[in-house]
Design brief:
Helices cover about 55% and strands about 10% of the residues. By secondary structure, the chain is mainly α. Helix 3 packs antiparallel against helix 6 (about 130-140).
């Protein structure tokens, strides 16, 4: 190779990596909070006992309720087609995203249409999307039973803060101080907030009850929340109200 050609080649070799520098990834606030929850908040001893209760209760409930769940799944398939199960991404402990299961009670594609809404507007629009079978399932909360598979897999607990969609989580981390602290425990099939307030209440109000449970969690409080949930479901069912 001639000297001019060699000089040109060397110039290209040196210039190439510096001409298009690769931008560094800057973690979002939600990602930073996920790291904090994962690294700084180790599980307590009581969490081992609560996990054992999760497995016992979720396994037993699945065995008892599987026949009814199967009938509702068949009715959903016949009346409104596939999919029978709703699969939605949710944020779990330490910010890990998982797929949460429910019996589908809304028209196909409803989550896409309902995505931008929450609070009272979400409740109103959700009612417009409920299917015939879904209305009966929501009345008794039987549509929540598939979440017991999430409990057995270790993605959820029977009791804990209700899981939220990733988009909501990222937004709430920016708007509500301490919201990230919900990541310290697994999200729950039911929660302290659900036994005290309604879905129309603010995220700040719900967070107060969630953090109270996280701070004071114990076997006694866990069973108390489960008992209150059963009473609440029974009361709402008798009144003809599902959610």
């Amino acid at each position: 190779m001639s000297a001019p050609a060699r000089a040109h080649a060397e110039t290209e070799t040196v210039a190439h990596p510096t001409s298009h520098p690769r931008p560094e990834h800057v973690p979002s606030l939600a990602e930073q909070y996920s790291d904090i929850a994962s690294e700084l908040y180790a599980p307590r001893r009581v969490d081992i006992a609560l996990r054992a209760l999760d497995l016992i209760i979720a396994g037993t409930a699945l065995l008892v309720l599987s026949p009814l769940l199967g009938l509702l799944a068949l009715a959903t398939l016949i009346t409104s087609g596939r999919p029978v199960l709703y699969r939605g991404q949710r944020v779990g402990r330490a910010g890990r995203v998982f797929v949460m299961y429910k019996l589908r009670t809304l028209a196909p594609g409803a989550e896409t249409r309902l995505g931008p809404y929450y609070g009272e507007e979400l409740s109103r629009r959700t009612e417009e999307e409920v299917t015939m079978v879904g209305r009966a399932a929501r009345l008794t909360h039987i549509d929540e039973v598939p979440q017991l598979f999430n409990v057995i897999r270790g993605e959820m607990s029977m009791v804990g803060p209700r899981p939220v969609r990733p988009a909501f989580f990222y937004r709430l981390c920016e708007e509500v101080p301490q919201y990230w602290q919900r990541l310290v425990v697994r999200p729950g099939v039911t929660g302290f907030a659900q036994t005290r307030i309604t879905r129309e209440d603010s995220w700040e109000d719900k967070l107060i009850h969630d953090l109270e449970y996280i701070a004071d969690r114990s076997i006694r409080l866990y069973l108390r929340v489960l008992g209150a949930t059963i009473v609440r479901i029974g009361t709402l069912t008798l009144r003809g109200r599902g959610r």
